[in-house]
Design goal:
This protein is α/β, with parallel strands linked by helices and 183 residues long. 42% of the residues lie in helices and 19% in strands. Strands 1, 2, 3, 4, 5 and 6 form a six-stranded parallel β-sheet that branches. The structure holds flavin mononucleotide.
């Protein structure tokens, strides 16, 4: 019987000083902890581990699911996030990826559409359900909380539920049949 706890790796998209990414990532982690059943790891390009290929490889290999928290810069996703993604190859395969994006009017959704292509090319499984924030700084309180009735809470719960469904299903599938068996 496999361990029922699934391993969630949270990817930080921004490596800027005073990034807003930390506020949104902390909110997402609180949701995952409230849901339960996840052990949570972090891939953060602002840390030495986040720029260490061997550490990234190990964290991606150990993960069952990925949650990407990314801002949008000039209609794209940050280079620091791409550097982390490109540092690893095989361990992304047959694992689900959900996205939380934020930015100005476009809510970071252009960045997410680009990331869907990137993760699909790595044989990961990008999910439809996610969360996006327009002008995120205006929506969170100074203490990092989001008002209780904000629609993002419901979207986050649904995204985590779907992520867990795929993470459990794909973990079983990878155990039954190695993903690269046909190669
Ligand atoms: C140079 C620059 C370009 C930006 N381009 C976009 C954009 O194309 N679309 C968008 O939604 N937000 C855009 N933004 C807003 C950022 O996504 C927003 O400031 C976000 O909070 C940055 O994330 P961070 O603080 O975690 O690094 C831009 C901001 C800057 C400074």
């Amino acid at each position: 019987m496999p361990d029922p706890t699934l391993r969630l790796a949270l990817l930080y998209g921004s490596d800027r000083r005073q990034r807003f990414c930390d506020t949104i990532a902390a909110w997402a982690v609180a949701h995952a902890e409230a849901m339960g059943g996840w052990s949570i790891d972090r891939l953060d390009p602002a840390t030495p581990e986040g720029r260490d290929g061997a550490a990234l490889e190990r964290k991606v290999r150990e993960a069952d699911a990925f949650l990407v928290v990314t801002p949008e810069y000039n209609h794209g996703y940050p280079a620091a996030l791409k550097a982390m993604i490109d540092a690893v190859y095989i361990p992304w395969q047959a694992k689900p990826v959900a996205f939380i994006s934020y930015g100005g009017l476009s809510r970071g959704l252009c960045a997410v559409e680009q990331l869907r292509q990137v993760f699909a090319s790595l044989h990961a499984v990008p999910l439809r359900d996610g969360v996006s924030f327009a002008h995120a700084r205006d929506q969170f309180a100074a203490d990092g909380t989001l008002p209780g009735g904000h629609p993002a809470h419901k979207a986050m719960r649904l995204a985590l539920w779907r992520l867990r469904w795929w993470a459990g299903a794909l973990r079983q599938a990878r155990l039954l049949i190695p993903y690269d068996a046909a190669a």
